[in-house]
């Protein structure tokens, strides 16, 4: 089991560019989520999904889109990057009926 | 809205001393309280958790206590070692909602 994987590890974008952060898990977990981590602010939930075809907004969804076409994949799209989106992004997954959430290794994004 | 407050934001202790980190939650429906440890540049890793039907849980040098009436829970690390130096996050969740609310983190430094 690879667990939760994320690509890329690092990314630099210019303001206005778009990109997709990839997240995949091979544990057949129903629940997946995206967090951003900023200094002094902990982990804030961006979007989450309780299964294929179902997504919902978290605390800080503006500027981000998600889709969940398969159980394994949960990509996060930035349509027009802004400097305020400079952050470390973590994907996580959780099995239905369980409580323990597993995190991916993170993507460090810098928007210039 | 739902909120988790975590204190202190930084904590320095001498090697061998104890460290205590405290969290308070607002949502009375919360019934699952995990603690994560995050080393520099790494993903958050679950170190211990507690459910609302239990008041205390121990795992070697780590313990967590929960006071449901006061809505607060604490992480206790005894006989601290330099490798305990990291950022620690508390979180609160309600079973079945799959939504975690994280505290803002505590940077623990264990001085040799």
Topology:
The complex is a heterodimer of chains A (112) and B (112).
Chain A (H helix, E strand, L loop, with lengths): L3 E4 L2 E4 L5 E7 L5 E7 L5 E9 L2 E4 L6 E3 L9 E3 L8 E8 L7 E2 L3 E5 L1
Parallel strand pairs in A: 2-11
Antiparallel strand pairs in A: 1-3, 3-8, 4-5, 4-9, 5-6, 7-8, 9-10, 9-11
Chain B lengths: L3 E4 L2 E5 L4 E7 L6 E7 L6 E7 L4 E4 L2 E6 L4 E6 L8 E8 L6 E3 L3 E6 L1
Parallel strand pairs in B: 2-11
Antiparallel strand pairs in B: 1-3, 3-8, 4-5, 4-9, 6-7, 7-8, 9-10, 9-11
Overview of this protein structure:
- The complex is a heterodimer of chains A (112) and B (112).
- Chain A is mostly beta strands and 112 residues long.
- Chain A has no helices and 11 strands.
- Chain A has strands spanning 4-7, 10-13, 19-25, 31-37, 43-51, 54-57, 64-66, 76-78, 87-94, 102-103, 107-111.
- In chain A, a hairpin with a 7-residue loop joins strand 9 and strand 10 (102-103).
- Chain B has 112 residues and is mainly beta.
- In chain B, strands 2, 4, 5, 9, 10 and 11 form a 6-stranded mixed β-sheet that branches. In chain B, strands 1-3-8-7-6 form a 5-stranded antiparallel β-sheet, with no helix packed on it.
- The mean pLDDT of chain B is 94.
- Chain A binds chain B through residues 31, 33, 35, 40-45, 48, 50, 58, 90, 94, 99-106, and chain B through 6, 9, 32, 34, 42-46, 49, 51, 89, 91, 93, 95, 98-105.
Give the gist of this structure.
Chain A is mainly beta and 112 residues long.
